[in-house]
Amino acid sequence: MVLADGWLEAFDLPPDTIGTVLALSGLHELEPLQHTQVNGWMRFDTGSIAQNSPIRHIPKTSGARLIASVGGLETGEFIRQTLDYAAAWKAAGHAAQVIDMPSHNHFDIALSLCEPDGVLVEAVRASIVRDAQGESA
User: Fold this and answer.
1) Which of the residues 6, 67, 72, 126 has the least number of beta carbons within 10 Å of its own beta carbon?
2) DSSP string covering 65-114, please?
3) Phi, psi at residue 120, to the nearest 5°?
4) Could you tell me the pLDDT band of residue 119, with boundaries at 50, 70 and 90?
């Protein structure tokens, strides 16, 4: 949701406040959860799903680069949502990169960020360098 439209302006922040976002095995569309046992305690309704589903809030303009990654040991829904979100981000004309992590799952993919030469760390580092040099993705 950090990429969503409107909140930067509400806090008087410049549009280039966010340069790179790393999305790891995310839930970007909450509607499917309304039909699972999770809804028993989440109590989703149409309004809360619309308000809290990042794929429904992709901004028209953004200089932020999305690095979306999903583990190969994920459920099909995590994989689908990650790929769909990255595709929607690209379709809106924004920079996006998808990094597959075949031997990771939802819980351990973030631990790969402890690897200084890991593929996710390298992708974030390269994006930060591009941003510092004023390059587009």
Assistant:
1) 6
2) EEEEEEETTS-HHHHHHHHHHHHHHHHTT--EEEEEETT--TTTTGGGGG
3) -70, -40
4) very high
